Structures are given as C-alpha cells and as structure tokens.
From TrEMBL:
It is a multi-pass membrane protein. The chain crosses the membrane at residues 27-50, 62-84, 104-122, 134-160, 196-218, 239-257, 277-295. Keywords: Cell membrane, G-protein coupled receptor, Membrane, Olfaction, Receptor, Sensory transduction, Transducer, Transmembrane, Transmembrane helix. It comes from Equus przewalskii. Belongs to the G-protein coupled receptor 1 family. It is found in: Cell membrane. The gene is LOC103546824. InterPro entries: GPCR_Rhodpsn (IPR000276), GPCR_Rhodpsn_7TM (IPR017452), Olfact_rcpt (IPR000725). This is Olfactory receptor. Putative odorant or sperm cell receptor. SUPFAM superfamilies: Family A G protein-coupled receptor-like.
Length: 318
C-alpha cells in the first residue's frame, strides 16, 4: 500500500497488534480476550438493566452508574471485536475511514467517561457533605444535564482530535504498532511534521484528564474532611467503602489514559503501549461492574432480584 519511491499515499492501515506472536499464543489471547469481552458485556449489561428497571435503585448514584456501564459497553465494542477478528485472520488491514471512525468513537466515549467520573465524584460529595439538600441539588433534571454535558463534550472533542490526527496526508509506513488506531501512533505516520498535532493532543489531554481529576480530588478531599470530623466509626467505614469503589475505577482509568496521551512519544514503544491500551480498553470496563457491585449491598441485592426474576420467567415458560 505504501511506496515511498513514487509518492503514493496511504489508503489503509495495518494493525500489527499481536501478529508477531506464535499461533499458540494468538489462540490463547483469543480465548482470554473473548472471555474478558463476554464477561464485561454481561456484567455491564446487567448493571444497565437493573439500574434502569429496579425502583430501589432510583437515585443519582445508580443513574450515573448505569450510564458509566453503557459507556464501557460502547468503549470495548469499539476495539475488542476487531482485535478478536485479527487474532484469527491473516488480513489485519483497516481502511482509512474505519480507522478514523474507530478513533473518533474511542475519543468521544473516553472523554465522556472522564467527565462522567468527575460528576460521579461530585454526586458523592453532595450526598455526604450536604445530605439535607441532596435531593434538591441532584435533581433529575440536573443529572440529565450532567450526563448530556459529558456526552456533548466527548463527541465534540472527538471531532477536534480526529481532525488533528488526520489533517495531513499519510505517505510513510502504514503499520500501526497496536491493536487499534491510537492517535499518537497514527500521527507519527503522517507526511508532515507531527509535533504540532502531538502538542495539541497533549494540551487537550491536560484539559480533558486533569480538569476532571481536579474536581475529583477536591470532592474527595472535602468528603474526607467531612467524615473524619463528624461520622462515627461505623459510618466512616460505610462511607469509605462507597467512595473506595469510585476511586479504584478512577485510578485504573486515569493512570492508563495519562500514560497513553500525556507521556513524550520517546518513552513509548509497542511493549509499553499495548499493556496500557489493554488496561483502559479491556480491563477497566470489565473491572468497573465488579468493583461497584461487590462492594455495594444494594447492587448485589438488585442483581439477585434480577436473576431471580429471570429464572422464574424461564421456569414459567417451560
């Protein structure tokens, strides 16, 4: 596809992924990633179902959690099915339009999730520090507005970053050393100087990642000061347990995203990029429902009720 001697341009990319691994290793990776993908889809789907149908979970926290699971489903579906296909077929080519679309969805959903996590931290702050005003502050209209804001900025940001990535022609090597189209890698394949686009993406990452992180840190600093100052030991334990679930998700997601988009490209390489890419595209979406569910009695109870209704419906249909 690329011939530098006659100046032809790139019309498709080759996702290197795990093609250099042995066939047995690729078969093992296929089985592992298929299991992880299926597990993540099932658990996130269950959370979406119970948070949107169980009247006992009719609160802003579970409203946000349902949308977080929906974002996780979108996120893993954008990258993992294609990776599974490439693990069993020899042709790893991806058209220019498909790469652009995939990158837009990764950016859009990823940024929306960053913002939503910050709003979830703010929700916990209001619930713990202003319990008497919680219902008024976090009304249904406010929650809808916050979720809409996360989606809006995510989708708009995706347009900007897609433009910065694909604004110039591509006439270099068309091999992407990852299992999906990741912007910093694709930019280095363009004909022109990639430094301007990389600097714009770096600046965007500072705004998109650090701004929500500041809100999260402020929210939890005030939560910590509040519960240490007035809560009983049992109340502290329950509050810490609830907040620990959210903080664990934040650490997983933000750490991997910051490494991918805020580190100098000189420190990157296939052996470093792939593990962090897997962390925020596969592991985090799978861990989110586990982290939130196993540490939350209400969620576990809702899951038991949902599974019980399903078993009863199946028994009645026989």
């Amino acid at each position: 596809m690329v011939d530098l001697r006659n100046g032809s341009t790139v019309t498709e990319f080759i996702l290197v992924g795990f093609e250099q691994s042995s066939p047995s290793t690729q078969a093992l990776l296929f089985a592992v990633f298929l299991a992880l993908y299926s597990l993540a889809m099932a658990m996130n789907g269950l959370i979406i179902f119970i948070t949107w149908t169980d009247p006992r979970l009719n609160s802003p926290m579970y409203f946000f959690l349902g949308h977080l699971s929906f974002l996780d489903v979108c996120f893993i579906t954008t990258t993992i099915p294609q990776m599974l296909i490439h693990l069993v077929v020899q042709n790893h080519a991806l058209s220019f339009a498909s790469c652009l679309t995939q990158m837009y969805l990764v950016f859009g959903v990823g940024v929306a999730e960053c913002i939503l996590l910050a709003f979830m931290a703010y929700d916990r702050y209001v619930a713990i520090c202003h319990p008497l005003s919680y219902a008024q502050i976090m009304s249904w209209h406010v929650c809808m507005g916050l979720v809409s804001t996360a989606w809006f900025f995510g989708l708009i940001n995706g347009i900007l970053l897609d433009y910065m990535t694909f604004r110039g022609p591509f006439c270099r090597d068309n091999h992407i050393e990852n299992f999906f189209c990741e912007a910093p890698i694709v930019i280095t394949l363009s004909c022109g100087d990639p430094q301007f686009s990389l600097r714009v993406i770096f600046a965007d990452a500072i705004v998109v990642l650090l701004s929500p992180m500041v809100l999260i840190v402020i929210s939890y600093a005030r939560i910590l000061a509040s519960i240490l100052g007035r809560a009983s030991s049992s109340g502290r334990g329950k509050t810490f347990s609830t907040c620990a679930s959210h903080l664990t998700v934040v650490v997983f997601f933000y750490t991997s995203a910051m490494f991918s988009y805020m580190n100098p490209r000189s420190t990157h390489g296939p052996d470093k990029d792939k593990p962090f890419s897997l962390l925020y595209t596969v592991i985090t979406p799978m861990c989110n429902p586990v982290i939130y569910s196993f540490r939350n009695k209400e969620m576990k109870g809702a899951m038991v009720r949902a599974l019980g209704r399903t078993s009863l419906a199946q028994a009645e249909s026989i």
